[in-house]
Amino acid sequence: MNYLSLNQVPCGKSYKIIEISAGLEARKKLLTLGIHVGDTINKISQSRWSPVLIRNLTTRSSKIAIGQGLSRKIMVGDESL
Amino acid sequence: MNPFKIVLVGQPNAGKSTLFNVLSDIKAATANFAGTSVKIIQSTIQLQGQVFQLLDLPGTYSLNAIDEAEKITQRYLLEEKIDLIINVVDSTLLARSLELTAELLELELPLVVALNMHDEAEKRGLKIDPEKLEKALGVPVAATAALFGKGVLQLMERCLQKLTGPKSLQPVLPYTAHVETLVQKLAQALPQPGEGKNGSRRFFAIKAMENPVMVPENMRQALATVVASASREITDFHQRDCFESIAYERHHQAMKLSEEISSFSPKGNVLFRDRLDRFLLHPLFGRLAMLAYFLVFFSVIFFAGNLLNGALGLILQKIPPLLLPLRNVSFILWLTMDGLYQGLAGSLGIVLPYFLPLIFLNSLFEDTGYLSRIAFLLDGLLHRIGLHGKSAAAFILGFGCTAPALYATRILENKRDRLLSALLLPFIPCSARNAVIFALTAALAGPAWALLIYLYVLLVIAATGKALSFFLPKPSGLIMEIPDLKPPSWSGALAKTGRKLKEFTSQVIPWLLLGSVAMAWLGLLRIGPLIDSFLSPLLKGLLDLPAKLGTTLVFGFFRKELIIVMAGQALGASSLALLPLSLSQIVVFAVFVTLYFPCFATFVVMGKEFGWKTAGAAAMLSVLVASISAYFFKLLFIFF
C-alpha cells in the first residue's frame, strides 16, 4: 500500500503513522499530545467543516482533533506495516 | 513552623482541580476543557496538626511549555521554593501521563504520584498496579478517585511521610545507552544551577539538548560547544531532530513502564457516553445539538431572568414609599437613600435575575467537556474569520465575563491567535451586557429584538475578525485534545454558582450602589450635564438618543450593569418599562452598549496580558464599531 496523508484515507479504520512532515511547533505539540511516528491510530471522523478526529490506539489516548491543513502533512500507511 | 508547600502538577484534565477541591475548602473552578485553569490557585489546609500550603498549577502536557498557561507552570517549577510535587496522573491515559512523570522525576524534587481516576481506568479495562509503579519509580504512589473523594487521605499521608521521613535519593528513569552516556557526560560538565533555582544538573543537561531556552544563560554559555556536538551526535544517530529524539526516548520509557505495571483487556461494551459523544461530534447532528444547546441556553436565561425580575420587582416596589417621609427631614439624605435604593433595585431586580441563570448554566456545562466539542464543531467556521476552534472556549466564557475569558486565551499556542481572540472578545456580550440586552428588550421591545442583536453581534465579530486577519499572518493549525465526557455535577454547579453569587454581592453590588448614589449627587452638582453635553454630538447628533444617557455610558465603563441601573435615574423614570424611549432608540442604545468596550477590569487585564497599546487599540476599535453599528441600526429604522 502506498502512503497517503491522513486526510485522504477513509474513516473508521486504523493506520500506522509513517511520517509527520509538519513545522517544528506542530510536531512539538503532536508529541506532547502523544502522537508519534510508528503509533497505530484510528481515524474516527472527518468532514468538510471539522477537523480530523483520531484516537491513538498504541497509547490508548483520548480523542485528538487535528486541523485539515495539518492532517495533509501526516502520512499514514497500512496498520500491519 | 513554616507550612509545607505542595504543588499539584498534571496534564490538562487529569483531575488536578477536582483533587484540589477535595483537599481544600476553597473550591477552585475546574473545567473539563483542556486547560481552563490557567491561573495558580492556592489554599491552606491542616492535616494531622501539620499545615500545608497547596497550589494548583495550570495543567501542562510536558515541561517543554508551548502555551502561556504551561509556561506559568514551567516557571513556577523551576524558580519557586517547593517542598513536594504531587503529580496527578490520569490513569485512563496512563502511557501519555507517565511521560510527564518521567520529566518531573528529572527535576529531582520530592515527588508523590496520585494515580487519579483509577476506578475509571478499570471500567475501561485497564488494570493498574500502584505498588508495581511505586517500585518501578521509587516514589510513593497512591491510587485516587478525586471525583468521589477516594484515596485522598491516603495520598496526603504518603505526602506527609515523604516530607517528614528520611531524605532518600530519588531514582531517574534511564535513557537508552547511547543517549544516557551523553546525558551523564553533559551533566558532569555543567555547573550547579544558581541559588534558589530548582532542577538538577541532569535535568538541565537533558534540556540543553531538548529545549535549550529552558537552561539558564550562564549554564548555556559555559557549554555551548559541548551541547552542540552532543546534539549533533544524537541527531545523526537517530536521524531526527534532537528534541524529537529525546521525546521519543521518554515516550518509550513511559510505554515500557506502563506495560510493566498495567494490563489491558478490552471490554466489549460500548459505554453510553461514547455513543453520546459520537452523536455530539457528528457533523450534522452534532451541529444541530449545538444550536439547540445555545437556543436553550439563552432562552432559559431570558425566561428565568424575566420570571425572577418580575418576582423581585414586586418586593422592591414596596420600598420607595417608605423613603418618602425622609424628604421632609433632609433633602440630601433622601437623595442619597433614593440613590441607594435605585442601585439596589437595579442590581437585585434587573442584573441579578439574568446573571444567576447564566452562571448556573455555565458552571453546569463547564465540567462536562462539552466546551471542547463546541470548539471542534466551530473550528471550520472560526477558520473563516482567521481563528480556530480553540478560541471557542474563550468566546463562550466571554458570555459570562470578559476578563476571565481573556485569561482563557492563554491556552492558545500562537501569539497571533491570542491577539486576534483578545481583540474580538470585548464584542461578546458578558453577563452584565446580557442583562442590559435582556432587560431593555424584555421591558420595551420583545425577545425577537434580543435575538436580532445577538445575531448582529456574531456578524460584527466575524466581519471584524476577517478584516483584522488581513493585517496578521496566517493562523496556525488546530491540534486539540477532546477529553472524555463527564456527567454534569448539580451539586458542583450549585456550589460554584453560590461562590460566584457571593463574589457578585461583595464585589459588584457595592459599586453599583456607589455609582447610583454618585449619579444622584451628580444631578445636584451639575457635573452630569457637563459630561452629557460633551458626548451629545455622538448620542444626540449621530444616534438620536437623549443626551442625558451620556453620563450612564461613562459610568458604564466602570461597570456595564450601571447603565441599566442609572438609565432610569437619568431619564427620570421609575422603572425600565417607563423609559421615555422609542423602540428604535431602545434598540440603538442596546446595540451601542453591547458593543462598546466592556469595562475597566477588561481594560486592565488586557493591558497586563497584551500590553497597554493593544488595550488602547481594542478600546478604540470597539467604540468605533459600536458607533457605526448603532448608526446602522438607526438608519435601518428610518428606512424600514
Report on this structure.
- The complex is a heterodimer of chains A (81) and B (640).
- The relative contact order of chain A is 0.33.
- In chain A, strand 4 and strand 5 (63-66) form a beta hairpin.
- Chain A has helices at 24-32, 68-71; strands at residues 4-5, 14-20, 40-47, 50-56, 63-66, 74-78.
- The model of chain A has no long low-confidence stretch (mean pLDDT 89).
- Chain A starts with a strand and ends with a strand.
- With 81 residues, chain A is α+β, with helices and mostly antiparallel strands.
- Helices cover 16% and strands 41% of the residues of chain A.
- Chain B folds into three domains: 4-164, Rossmann fold; 177-264, Helix Hairpins (Orthogonal Bundle), CATH 1.10.287; 285-472 and 495-639, no CATH class.
- Chain B has helices at 16-23, 68-79, 94-107, 118-123, 130-137, 152-164, 177-189, 201-210, 217-238, 242-261, 272-280, 285-316, 319-323, 326-329, 331-366, 370-384, 391-398, 402-408, 415-424, 431-444, 447-469, 490-525, 528-542, 550-556, 561-571, 583-595, 600-610, 612-639; strands at 4-10, 41-47, 50-56, 84-90, 111-116, 126-128, 141-143, 262-264, 479-482.
- In chain B, the strands form two sheets. Chain B has a six-stranded mixed beta sheet with strand order 2-3-1-4-5-7, sandwiched between helices. Chain B has a two-stranded antiparallel ribbon with strand order 6-8.
- In chain B, strand 4, helix 3 and strand 5 (111-116) form a beta-alpha-beta unit.
- In chain B, helix 15 (331-366) packs across helix 20.
- The relative contact order of chain B is 0.08.
- Residues 26-36 of chain B have low confidence and may be disordered.
- The chains are: A alpha+beta (81), B alpha/beta (640).
- Chains A and B meet through helix 1, strand 3, strand 4 and strand 5 of A and helix 3, helix 10, helix 16 and strand 9 of B.
